[in-house]
Specification:
Helix content is 70%, strand content 10%. The protein has a single domain, classed as Arc Repressor Mutant, subunit A, CATH 1.10.10.10. The protein is mostly helical. The chain has 6 helices and 2 strands; from the N terminus they run ααααββαα.
């Protein structure tokens, strides 16, 4: 197996193990909520003036799919929509108190998982981090270009 295959399989393996290790705790703590709903809540809390377009771009989903998702979250009482006085056309989202509770549970779980894995990251040098980050950025740009070649532009949909 060449190094390229080893890297890809390594990423896949890491991701699958993280998902498997975190799955039960996430599902038990966030019962009744789908991962897409929780990640939408997270995005809205961390990004001011979140709207359908920004969410669609971030999650590589259509605006129609995001509209369905946000309607579900509104119905569950987790987010609410609002408009700015200077822009009555655009609809934005923010968390309700109930949404903030879900956000906090999710953040606490992430912190717990980070603490679990901290020993590994403490051994990584600044140069190693920089190298990994350069690789991830380069690969991301490549995949963005490949997506664009397919004629899919999540930012314009």
């Amino acid at each position: 197996m060449n190094k390229e295959d080893q890297v890809i399989l390594g990423f896949r393996d890491l991701y699958n193990k993280m998902v498997w290790l975190n799955k039960d705790k996430m599902e038990n703590s966030l019962k009744g909520y789908k991962p897409s709903e929780v990640h939408c809540i997270e995005y809205i809390e961390k990004n001011a003036d979140s709207n359908v377009t920004k969410l669609a771009e971030s999650f590589y989903m259509t605006r129609g799919a995001i509209s369905k998702l946000t309607k579900k979250l509104i119905k569950k009482g987790l987010i609410e929509s609002y408009q700015k006085s200077d822009n009555k056309k655009e609809i934005y989202f923010r968390l309700t108190e109930q949404g903030k509770v879900i956000y906090k549970i999710h953040e606490d779980l992430h912190k717990e998982f980070q603490d679990r894995d901290k020993a590994v990251f403490e051994q990584v040098t600044e140069e190693q981090f920089d190298s990994m980050l350069r690789f991830v950025e380069k690969y991301n740009k490549h995949l963005d270009a490949e997506i664009k070649k397919l004629g899919i532009d999540f930012k314009a949909e």
